[in-house]
User: Fold this.
Amino acid sequence: MHLSRSTVLIAGALVIAGCSSEPDRVISVAEQPAATTTAELRAGSVGIRVQSAETRTSVSVAGGAGRPLEVDGRWVLPRVVADGPADGATPDGSRAVLAEAAGSRGGVSRFMVLDLKAMASKLVELPGDFTYDAWSPDGAVIYFIEHRPPADSGKYVVRAYDRASAALRPDAVADKRTSGEEMAGLPIARASTRDGRSVATLYVPHPSGSHGDGHEGLGRPHGPFVHLLFAADATALCVDLPAEVARGWTVAVKGKVLHISRPEVARAYAIDLLSGELTTTTR
Assistant:
């Protein structure tokens, strides 16, 4: 198994990197004067607006009653794919995660968890280098990517954070069929079911060479793959793909099938989201 430090900053969930098959989630980002940025995210029927300044962040909900939620510090909506759409809200838009704009500092990663109904926030601090990955459909669990050394190697594990106990579960969320295999790669596209129960991320070999001779101890060389996170029960499958899948390929969920394609390539691939079975198709 396989991932990357490329989980950069800004938030959403039900979307494709470079592809928009889920029209109910729309992101727009506007640069404003004096290092202030504004990001707008639509999750389900909820519109979320985050305005980030140097020392203060304002969060408002479109159509919501009351004043915006004000949070000390500079917080931003996260991105799972570096050049992809925002990620970080639950499917129904009732909760969201913000990441500290400075990233991991002093060996600690900080996140602000928002209850957008109560307009309340709670700080979550995790020892290590973490970035946001996904929510469980009911909002009880937040999945984070824990980046492993060496830095920027693409090595990672997926961890589940229980909001009720305010702690990470001890075991990583991994494909039990490949127990012990190193996870490393670069996420280039993502899609999920509308209910957020299945989250699929397309990875390619990390540019650092983490799938080859770039670093020692990273396991056997590995090609592209899809990581299927079953967010409702904290389980996962890893589906290997042919070597031709690279940047420029996109993913889209249609029903219970994940489609992997590139516009100029006649051949495409499909993954059954229930079994993880891979098939080749033509378009």
The longest strand covers residues 36-43. The chain has no helices and 21 strands. The chain has a mean pLDDT of 83.
